[in-house]
Amino acid sequence: MIIKGDIAYTPSPQELVTIEDGYVVVGDDGRVMGTYSSLPAQYTPATTGTLTAPTLVDCTGKLVIPAFNDLHTHAPQYPMLGNGFDCELLPWLERYTFPAERHFEDPAFADHWYRRFVNRMWRVGTLRFSAFASMHTEATRRLMELCQESGLRPVVGKVNMDRNAPEYLTESADDSLAGTEELIRWARTHTPNVGYVVTPRFVPSTTSELMRGLGELADRYDLPVQSHLDENPGEVAWVRDLHPDIPTYTDVYDRHGLLRDGRTIMAHCIHLTDHERDLLRDRHVFVAHCAQSNMNLSSGIMPARRWLDAGLTVTIASDVAAGQDPAMNRHIVQSIEASKIRTLEAKRGGNDGQASQAGQISQAAEPPLTLPEAFHMATKAGGRFFGTVGSFEPGYDFDALVVDEGENPLDLPVADRLERFVYEGDDRWIERRYVAGREVPEPFAQDTGRAE
Amino acid sequence: MIIKGDIAYTPSPQELVTIEDGYVVVGDDGRVMGTYSSLPAQYTPATTGTLTAPTLVDCTGKLVIPAFNDLHTHAPQYPMLGNGFDCELLPWLERYTFPAERHFEDPAFADHWYRRFVNRMWRVGTLRFSAFASMHTEATRRLMELCQESGLRPVVGKVNMDRNAPEYLTESADDSLAGTEELIRWARTHTPNVGYVVTPRFVPSTTSELMRGLGELADRYDLPVQSHLDENPGEVAWVRDLHPDIPTYTDVYDRHGLLRDGRTIMAHCIHLTDHERDLLRDRHVFVAHCAQSNMNLSSGIMPARRWLDAGLTVTIASDVAAGQDPAMNRHIVQSIEASKIRTLEAKRGGNDGQASQAGQISQAAEPPLTLPEAFHMATKAGGRFFGTVGSFEPGYDFDALVVDEGENPLDLPVADRLERFVYEGDDRWIERRYVAGREVPEPFAQDTGRAE
């Protein structure tokens, strides 16, 4: 397939490649063969090798960009989207989130709302994601089935919880592990396009025994892991109380085998010590930066520039529903906005209460995120979790969005049009969606009830 | 007219009144007569006085809320929406904004884009607003005509600029005043529902002579005034250089007769001295708080709680296009988010670089905005600028939105449903729009080109 349009992608954080009236050539294997400003002769039908009679998809005048990869979202929180913003993390869990997730013990409720969730991911152009389900094994199975049916390629995990939560949302460690292993094995044959991700909710909700069992499962089945880390000061203190023998929150995960090298996602990572930062870097952990959620729950602002400078892999994520927007472009914007506030904080010398060094920290010390950087963090940086995903370099899976922005009143170049889509666009602008080279039609459209 | 639905409004910042399956009774004069949880006998057709055979508009299951009032938006920046976020205020003006506003010297461009702007205001439920036009008299006239035709009831002003801007966007003080007075007189007969607001761009762009002339016009014709104030430190320093004899930026406006008591809007108001804060309070100035714009241009975070505590009238505004969202609900959310960051800053003792008092400032010192407070700031607080607007108390103009949120999965009470609309809703949720008791159909729908 050859797709013609106004191409934009970020092979690196500093580099936004744009090709107006360009071409992406996609092989039968669904991978990008190359991008071109004019179509090379070898891709005409007569001379193609692996391509037989390539289809030309003409998206002239429209943006063609990598689809979004959202490494931190809570599928069972979709029904509570937009509510509960009057408290911080720990009361928020007790007051809103645990009661909301409880509903997923009802299979009909789970089916109903997971259809809507998956439809919404498709709508907003998030074609791969890493989702927490609930602790309910059957509901999680349903979510994975629906994802497999939809054409999207996320990973999903049943949430493991055996302490410090309402009894209706906890199980014994044994039951939690059994349900997890059952799903892992089931998924291998039933959901080839939907991987399983081992999902301890966070340290306070999973005993050592459970964490150790999960680390073992992840190792045995060679699976990725996801959890939360250093989001809120009260949470950090709680972890210290629960594990006084372990120096840091990050070390708790590490000692239970849950920081699998290059295969782990940790959400938030705001209040890291230098040691934790280095440990995350050494384990090649994917940091899921959730700026909107962090503002909503008064968790603080993660210093994205400092973590990037320290060599961490930082991605942008939605954290539905502590984040109220499923749409990743809004999170790109909010991450940039948060980084601008952070830059001003750093200039003033503020640094989470440390001694002021006003005047000594230059304006350049913590420059804000640029649009290419943030776009990279929402596409290629998180895409690496799934493989060669999130860019249009040769060999990358062709995951893409075709975006129709409507009028272009100021005759903007492609880079500015991308910025406009990011800042101002919504799902109505997205015309087509491709996963691994295949166009994905709208899943479960008849179930959404209303145009959201 | 009697409208039945799930009523919500904020008669005061601390009070969200909700009436599930309630009624708003609207008189023939377009004003609210009362809200009720069940329809009183006197409003049945047989016994009505001022009402003759009231229409019942049945919006059962839908939210009925006051429409939004946006006291700070730049209509000619609508075509540049979503662009230009890589610099601070002063370079942003030079690089993006002045060139964009230049296009409005072309009457066809102005007509085309002002139709879209007005349509967009209608779509997002902003039924009254105070808009900066451009310095072009004819384009401004066109905007006022279109507004008059649309059924919305904004105020609009030609922007006065005679210094420190490109020559294509400046005029002599005389020409600027003449164009202004011409529009003022013309509007009185041609746009009865669209008032004129005297609009010096900001001190750096208007000489003393021009400011004085504008103050005089505002006084002679008894008109409101709008401008910008204390948005960016570089701007504040510039004003000091331009007027070294005048103690503060606010005093510059005041000394030129531009702080008309109870009839003035000042946007941003971030970097106020205590004296300026008190002066704004004494003049009953409407502060237009533009949290999103302030983040985008790295201007800082306006300390909303401190200004509210000091007795200022603080409203929420969009500042299109330094703010990228026309939709006021998003600005309600972003104002709350900004206030949460501000609360954390204040806790740490940070106060724009002042000596740290960590530990002495309690968490309660600057609590964040609540949803009712922020909703009040986007409806009633700014509504007062237009008269008795922005609430459903008796005597208030019935400006309202009917909102269909679709499914209510967790059987939420009305207050939570309002929160959900604010955090998660978009223009697609808004079903009906009323201004002064009359339903306003979509203006200029055929011109929008695309579904935005």
Automatic annotation (TrEMBL), chains A, B:
Q: Which cofactor does it need?
A: Zn(2+)
Q: Which GO terms describe its cellular component?
A: cytosol
Q: Which PANTHER family match?
A: GUANINE DEAMINASE (PTHR11271:SF6)
Limits of the Amidohydrolase-related domain: 63-440
Name the Gene Ontology molecular function terms of this record.
Answer: guanine deaminase activity; zinc ion binding
Q: Give the matching InterPro entries.
A: Amidohydro-rel, Metal-dep_hydrolase_composite, Metal_Hydrolase, Metallo-dep_hydrolases
Gene3D superfamilies found in the cross-reference section:
Metal-dependent hydrolases, Urease, subunit C, domain 1
Q: What biological processes does GO assign it?
A: guanine metabolic process
- What name does UniProt use for this protein? Guanine deaminase
What organism is this sequence from?
Bifidobacterium vespertilionis
